[in-house]
Write a structure and sequence with these properties.
heterodimer, A: alpha/beta, pyruvate-formate lyase- activating enzyme, Arc Repressor Mutant, subunit A, 3 domains, five-stranded parallel sheet, 25 helices, 16% strand, B: three-stranded mixed sheet, three-stranded antiparallel sheet, 4 helices, 26% strand, DUF5825 (chain B), metal-binding (chain A), metal ion binding (chain A)
Chain lengths: 618, 179
């Protein structure tokens, strides 16, 4: 059997498709006689635009539409005109939508005229491989581009079998994708390691795939959806990805001059925190929350193999959360390798300074610690399992260890009030030397999240997000099953407090580049050199118990706990003197207050700071 | 122990380095190669360097523009101004992997060239030239490799000495994706 695997726009141009890399291995392991080929449609699209637009639409524009435009469905919209055979389909609705929300759509609109010809060219190229089965992987905005190509393929070669799988096919979304698109023969819902080879076996033998868990298939004109399995794929059965065909496609592409390719690896699936406390807003793990990790030694072997083969030192992990065992059996191996790797990892934000140091030493210098908020009550509402003080500590340690920290400030949680925000917003100017969030964003209602599955949590009224009106030509009830994002009534803060929060975050972002708050030791004195935006330059000098207090508060403590520690260290400080000093340090912006807990804000080191986007390729 | 080359006397305080003496960039021999190595290592560690230059480069002075600019440069003010305005941390650097070295070269505005050094002779020469090396000490293969590296502006070959130009990045900036 000839199996052709396809990843369409808007797969990131600098990354191989982990999904294709895994499927390639899975099929070849299960069915050695099959021929497996790949089509890297996202790369092709960037090439196509570059060439056809005479260099006007560049790979950077694909990032703008395909990554930055996710919450507006811009990438899907570019291809909706092909799917619905109408180049102008949805344009007026998109324009209205964009005008209401101040969204830039010029690039997406400029791309659309190229979409139909591109899909036709893709179909020609895919069919030239003479496949029996074409398998699409679809995540985020790959649905419409994939459907458009699937439709064209079936028009040209009806006997071809078209299969869809991937994150967009989980649960009811997969069934809706199937029943609304008769040119899609099968949808694999959930993990593919067991299901895809089982489907190929049925196709080979001409039998009905009633026993493939989760699979959608056609019973005449009726779309059947097999019950999904609760069984998850064991880590031992998750292969190491094969990126050879991606490398060949990239090597032959003019796009390679515009991108800095990175490897993608997978250490774990699921979320160990979510198994115990599902963060109320998060739908990322779909229906498979169970945490499963490859042993650190195996992950390191996989990375070593890929690094040697592709001669790339940048590694992105897709894990939703790092396995804490990796601090013992993976990161020390990376740190000891002597290779100058640069890794990206999602972590939990309550890491210790020692763990953050190990991340830095191992080259895991880009982390996403899921900070989400600096207010403890809001963090409680989202069941995040950390405090605001802890999050501020993590941000400070990122400066100490030169870790790049990607985070968002989320708001709009049911039950939150202005009182949860005002003490935090008041203190944001004191944090200006720490890495700011990408912005302050109202949470979205995501399928699979507790907010979605339990309307009693506060989002009782919901409808498919407005963006889908310019993406799909489907009735509301079908959209309700097909989409991932939903609109609901705003919860939590609104109006002036919301605006105040957004303004404060904007000021943080604007003032960060030139702001420093540094500890310096000078003999007996502890100096704090304050060069933060919005304050006059100052150098504060502390000695004795005050210097000790400032150091002790690096870990975050209450005043009574600090008092006990100082006493244990031989500092007999009157309680009122300590209170007065705390108030003084707080007024200087040297401490962050979270309820009864105080955290020191100065850092011991400063990273080399560069403007954001300085290294972006065209 | 600062970890910096001792051939150039210096003072290290925090993330700042001060070089009290003059660094000869004239390109007449070993001193320039040593100065380049010192500045290259400072750049790799992300240190701020205060130094003064002596000598008139006998080579294309643009070869040094990825290194921290001096406080003083003899002669042409425009030359120093161009160095300062064009200097960007991480404009040229290298990273080590198993059996290869990758080089990122953003010295030409608007470009970002990735090179992989994996030919054994080239890699051996690059490793050798991380320390200032007299050309006389190189065998014919090494000299040819040094010539290739110089042609790509990955080594400075002048005054009978050769030294590699790209710092090894030992401390990533924030954001680390900026370089």
């Amino acid at each position: 059997m000839r199996v052709h695997l396809v990843t369409m726009p808007w797969h990131p141009l600098d990354l191989p498709s982990l999904q294709l890399g895994l499927l390639n291995r899975i099929v070849r392991q299960a069915r050695p006689a099959d021929r497996v080929t790949e089509f890297h449609g996202s790369l092709r699209w960037a090439e196509f635009l570059l060439e056809r637009s005479g260099g006007r639409l560049r790979p950077g524009d694909c990032v703008a539409v395909g990554s930055d435009g996710i919450f507006h469905g811009l990438g899907d919209w570019v291809f909706s005109g092909v799917l619905y055979d109408d180049p102008g389909w949805g344009l007026a609705r998109l324009r209205d939508y964009a005008a209401d929300r101040d969204v830039l759509i010029d690039t997406a609109v400029a791309m659309r005229p190229y979409a139909a010809e591109f899909v036709a060219a893709c179909a020609t190229e895919v069919l030239a491989a003479e496949p029996d089965v074409v398998g699409f992987t679809t995540t985020f905005m790959q649905n419409v581009p994939s459907l458009a190509l699937a439709r064209e393929l079936k028009c040209r070669k009806p006997e071809l079998t078209v299969v869809l799988g991937g994150g967009n096919c989980e649960g009811p979304m997969g069934h809706a994708l199937h029943r609304n698109h008769p040119f899609v023969d099968h949808v694999v819902r959930g993990e593919a390691e067991y299901a895809f080879p089982a489907l190929l076996r049925h196709l080979d033998e001409g039998t009905v795939p009633v026993d493939v868990p989760g699979l959608c298939w056609w019973d005449g004109h009726i779309s059947r959806a097999n019950t999904e399995t609760r069984r998850t794929v064991a880590p031992a059965d998750i292969p190491s990805p094969d990126y050879d065909q991606w490398q060949a496609a990239l090597d032959a592409s003019p796009v390679q001059e515009y991108v800095h390719p990175k490897l993608v690896v997978e250490g774990a699936r699921g979320c160990w925190w979510g198994e115990k406390h599902h963060c109320t807003f998060c739908g990322l793990n779909g229906s498979a929350m169970a945490f499963r990790a490859k042993p650190g030694e195996r992950l390191w072997e996989e990375i070593g193999r890929l690094v040697r083969r592709h001669r790339l030192l940048d590694v992105v992990t897709v894990d939703n959360i790092i396995d804490m065992a990796y601090f013992r059996d993976f990161l020390p191996r990376v740190a000891g390798s002597g290779w100058d790797l640069r890794l990206h990892y999602e972590v939990k934000s309550n890491l210790t300074p020692g763990q953050l140091r190990l991340l830095g030493e191992s080259g895991t210098v880009h982390i996403q610690p899921g900070i989400e908020s600096l207010g403890s009550r809001v963090l409680d509402l989202m069941d995040k399992g950390v405090t605001g003080a802890r999050n501020v500590r993590t941000l400070r340690e990122c400066e100490n260890h030169a870790l790049t920290c990607s985070w968002n400030l989320l708001y709009g949680f049911p039950g939150e009030t202005a009182d949860d925000y005002t003490p935090v917003i008041d203190q944001l100017p004191a944090l200006v030397h720490l890495q700011p969030p990408s912005g302050a964003h109202r949470i979205q209602l995501e399928r699979f999240s507790p907010h979605f599955t339990d309307p009693a949590l506060g989002f009782g009224k919901r409808r498919p997000a407005e963006l889908y009106q310019h993406v799909y030509d489907l009735p509301a009830d079908e959209l309700t099953d097909l989409v991932y994002l939903f609109d609901s009534e705003d919860a939590g803060i609104t109006g002036p407090v919301e605006q105040w929060l957004k303004d404060a975050v904007a000021a943080w972002r604007a003032g960060h580049a030139d702001s420093r708050l540094l500890f310096e030791e000078a003999g007996e004195e502890l100096l704090v050199v304050d060069r933060r935006c919005g304050r006059p330059p100052a150098t504060h000098r502390f000695t004795g118990w005050q210097a000790e207090a400032l150091r002790r508060l690096e870990d975050g403590r209450t005043v009574p706990a600090l008092h006990r520690l100082l006493a244990a260290g031989g500092h007999d400080v009157p309680a009122d003197a300590l209170d007065a000093w705390i108030r003084h340090a707080l007024s200087l912006g040297l401490l962050f207050r979270d309820g009864l807990t105080y955290v020191s804000l100065p850092t011991w080191g400063e990273p080399v700071r560069l403007p954001e986007g300085a290294g972006a390729a065209g | 122990m600062s970890g910096l080359p001792t051939a150039v006397p210096h003072r290290l305080a925090g993330r700042r380095v001060e070089v009290p003496g003059l660094l000869d960039v004239g390109g007449q021999g070993r001193d320039t190669a040593e100065a380049v190595r010192f500045l290259r290592e400072c750049a790799g560690l992300g240190l701020r360097v205060s130094w003064r230059a002596a000598g008139q480069p006998s080579y294309d002075a643009r070869a040094l523009r990825h290194l921290p600019p001096p406080d003083e440069l003899p002669g042409d003010h425009e030359e120093l101004a161009a160095w300062r305005s064009g200097y960007a941390h991480g404009a040229l650097y290298h990273r080590r992997g198993p059996g290869f070295v990758t080089v990122m070269d953003r010295r030409e505005p608007g470009t970002a060239a990735r090179l992989t050094l994996d030919h054994p002779d080239l890699l051996a020469a690059f490793d050798l030239l991380l320390d200032p090396t007299p050309l006389d000490a190189l065998d014919p293969t090494g000299r040819e490799a040094a010539g290739l590296l110089a042609a790509e502006r990955l080594a400075l070959v002048t005054g009978g000495w050769a030294v590699a130009l790209p710092p090894r990045i030992r401390r990533w900036p924030v954001p680390c994706t900026a370089i």
